Amino acid sequence: MFPHIISPLIVNAPMYGTATAALAAAVTKAGGFGFIGGGFDFTSSSAQLSSLEEQLVKARELLGLKTLPESNGKATDSLPIGVGFLTFHNGDASGLIPLIRRHRPAAVWLFAQAHNQHASLIKDIKLAGDQWNMKVFVQIGSVQSAIEAANDGADVIVVQGADAGGHQFTSNSSIVALLPEVIDVIENLHKEVSILAAGGIMDGRGIAAALALGASGVVMGTRFAATLESEASQATKSVLVSTQDGGISTVKSVIHDSLQGRGDLWPVPYDGRAVICDPYKKVLAGKLSVEQATDLQKKAASEGNTSGMVVWAGAGVGLIRDIESAGAVVERSRAETIRILKYLSKF
Length: 347
Description:
Blueprint: E1 9-12, H1 21-29, E2 34-37, H2 47-62, E3 67-68, E4 74-75, E5 79-86, H3 96-103, E6 105-111, H4 118-128, E7 135-140, H5 143-152, E8 156-160, E9 166-169, H6 175-189, E10 194-198, H7 204-212, E11 217-220, H8 222-225, H9 234-242, H10 246-249, E12 250-253, H11 255-259, E13 270-275, H12 278-284, H13 290-303, E14 311-312, H14 326-344
Parallel strand pairs: 1-11, 2-5, 5-6, 6-7, 7-8, 8-10, 10-11
Antiparallel strand pairs: 3-4, 9-13, 12-13, 13-14
InterPro entries: Aldolase_TIM, NMO
Keywords: Dioxygenase, Flavoprotein, FMN, Oxidoreductase
Organism: Talaromyces proteolyticus
């Protein structure tokens, strides 16, 4: 599907605001597949798309690919990275298709539809990228949503389990239960769809486990947030490295968004996993209202106070012990996976 990939396939999640050109290019250079987070506003006047356009130009430069300045930067080759979008507020996609045609990404990632709009959107996206065989990834969190994604025309389904950091389906399970069931159902549909695993994967052990469950590759988010190329703040990276016992230290809740002042951004079916912070504890204990805790969180974030910030992280965060380059994460994780699979092949 992607000629530059070195097996096993390792993808960075398109974390909006965290996964920019530097991270995506580093992952792709290491033989993985890099994604840039593109946001949720697709209108022609979108500041998010303008920022994404800048990042796509930068990614092309970082990868040493040519552009044609006389054609307003139109790419001469497809770009071996992808762009990810949140689709819950997608009412006007007027700016998305022209951007895809200008920059020719190898893939587009969609997540969090609210009104069953993916079927028409995928059709338009595939038409725009047909010249260079662009692929469409759809992130799901249930068997039913996987069936919908396959029927809508997804080329790749990302099965996100409950151990994932950041936003996900409110009602879901770990990939141990969800991934095999999705694979069986998709196989019965007789559709050519690749399936990736996401949620709590931090190293080669997690990758090997996902492959054993039937995945074609994996997506890692939290682990790539804690890299040199990540746009996450130093305070956030400090929390990711220092947090231990991730299953206890993180929690899925809609409160995290409220604490960041965007409680009305995500639709009802979604929540997010983050490290438990002091404002969250005080809301749960009834010591502060959500409004008061929101002010506390904003102050903590502005001051880099790690105990008071909302830091999105998966349940595997306790496995992160240092900040290294994204390329090193890909290469080390790949080597670990191969070593484990070779060992297991003896039995």
